[in-house]
Amino acid sequence: MDIKKSQQDLESASNDEDSNINGRRDFFRKTAALSVTALAGTSLLSSEAKADDPAIMEPQKWGTAWGDPVTKNLYGMPSKYEHNVTRRYTKLLASGNYRASIAVTPIHESSGIITPNGLFFSRSHGGVAHIDPNEHRLMITGLVEKPIVLTMKQLKRYPSVTRTHFIECPANGGQEWRGPQYNSLQFAKGFMSCAEWTGVYVKTILEDLGLKPEANWMLAEGGDSSKMGRTIPIDKVLDDAMIVWGQNGEALRPEQGYPVRLLVPGWEGNLCVKWLRRLDFASEPWYCKEETSKYTVLKPTGKAIQHFYANEVNSTVTSPSPEIDWTDLEDGDIVEIEGLAWSGMGTITGVDISFDGGNNYVEAKLKGLVLPKCWTRWSYMHTYKKGQELILTSRAMDDAGYIQPTIDEETLKVGVEAVYHRNAVESWKVEKDGKITHVQIRSQLDRKPNGELVIEGKV
Amino acid sequence: MFKLNKNLLISISAAAALSLGLTACMEDIMPSANATPSLAASIDGGVKYPVKDDKTGPYYVNPQVEKQAKHIFNGRIPTEHEYEEWNSDVMPDGTGLPEGEGSVEDGEEVYESKCVMCHGDFGSGGGGYPSLSKGTAYDLHETLTNQRIKPDMDGPVRVFGTYWPQASTLWWYIKDAMPHPQTDSLSDDEVYSLVAYILNINEFEIDGEEVDDEYVLNREKFLKIKMPNVDGFEPKIDGPEGRANVRKYFSNPDNFGAVKVKASERCMTNCQEPTAKIVYIQGAGISDFHPPMSVARDLPKEEPSAGGFNAEKAYTESCAMCHGAEGMGAPVVGNKAEWAAYTAKGMDKVYTNGIKGTDAGMPPKGGTDLSDSNFKSIVDYMINKSK
Question: Which residues of chain B lie closer than 8 angstroms to A109, CB-CB?
């Protein structure tokens, strides 16, 4: 490791923070004492000969004339100054004409734990279908006592539940099994978003339809041109799977499967079949195209994991990021390091932060609502030292008992050809000038004659 | 796939004959003690949040719903025709696979007219679309143990012939979702012929017989296909133990690259291997982002356009993939001779072919939802670039 920072260094760093805070307190005490003798309290204001800020000194056009009437923009739009906050795509991840493709979420610009509907990542296998809700039907058949076909109006009459869950493509981070490729948070970790969903539990509808005891698997199939399908075990269907029509207080967006999609909380995004038109129940699994040719994890043994459902515990530093760096910070500035943690297997219980690329950790703090299978915000207060190189690495844990592995731990078990389900810790290097670079901390792998992966040069 | 029984439909509409309710079934799916350590464990290796004191995890639930859901039937029972219309899935045992036949020869013809523009010559791939073959499946199946742990190493070949565990997936997928811009448009015999062709380019044998250029595939032969990688997947999901196998597999973190540890025992110091080094992005990495990355708070730049529609931009987004490069089967922008042959037939014909699509592979309006006039302006742009 190029950067070594022992626990002792970290402790002394935090002592420095204390002394720095005390220094500021002293300053304010002294200033307050002086102000008593001053006349109108204006002594707190700077009398230095700096140029006044025209943003304050000059009247602005928006402060001196009418704004728009309320009759304009009856469906509101973001400020035009926010035009760079959009989903983005890259040719690397696309079929030639962007129908079997993905556009990813600008999580470097995300606040809180809710992704606005216009920024929710968009993945489709045959393009974004635009369905007339009056002509859409949902059919539930197979090993049920009583099959059913529902209009949207009939479906929405079922008693609803509302839950906040992330949806993550299992290929999130999947381009970086063999090394970092994107100097970007949006592309390194933005194949996911989080929203408040409203719909009905599948189990509520099945109460009435009567599932037969020999039903083991459910097929969920979309009504779009790709007829996207996935097989889901009954265990999950009867736990928390939902048929959803609401997203953050409004109808699903077309990119999210309007008028209706499946939501399988915590599991691979592709299981949350969009434009949902059919649920079928059978005793044997279906072998849909996307659960064999794709969304399987090939291990060094040559065997591949199929039906790998849950997105495992994961986290990332969101601030700073390659997009929003620390080049504007001054020496001694106190700055919040912030991030996201999430687990499809449960609820986040803690996050650790490392300043040396995951060699030594201290505890970060969770903040805000902490919900199952949901984005969770975490935070750590840091005193910035100008010119100091750091490698920021976060590591999350969940209530199922899982913790994020190191890259070495993960690749030794599943190799580097897995494509999906990469959840090893991620690192940002803070350069001397405050720029942020995406790096990985890992060993060179080697292979034993029996095919087993080992660390090269490890004694 | 489940065969709907007419008598069943009649009997269930007659009375509340729901002797097998959901409650009994839920008991049935509760994990047995030897399969998992905890009743609260989910099949995926995670935790469950069972309803307790009218709450699941942090969420309140209305307890009236569970009691009364049995009496909600908001829809209607589908007719047999409706059920059959959507019941297109094909399962590994042949359930749902119709009778029919198709030859390799016919398959090649369909392939050349409807598939080659995306999947390339002999299924070699291209333009971001999947390869269908890389050669002899039986040999290339051996590459699945390859790991590119060093830059000069070869990776595993994951195409239909080498990787997919079931041939039924291919038949079903082609029938339902191909050709990509015009799905659900092939007859059963055409699907058999395409499957025969794909088996041929993967150099398959069925029941000891080579799928050569003369081969004719039918349902009976299809069901005898043995995929080289049929045993290449874990956990085993078939049969009565399928779900229990999945549960058992994901109860062991070592199986899927996960790490479990008590919070109090997690590593806080010297957690990396001493051999671990900083690895940087090679070269410029991937930075082909659209739109280009920016966090500026400025006003958007006005895009140059004529009459509010930018033909060049629309061409780049929707047409260049097939018309921008040789080998995709479509006339290439810039190739004067090729375009002159089309325009010689008259511009009306060129527009009509573009708007309605052709059997040679042009999807209607190139798969876009543009207006006729905007579509025509792209055609004009492409022709102007080819003069």
Answer: 295
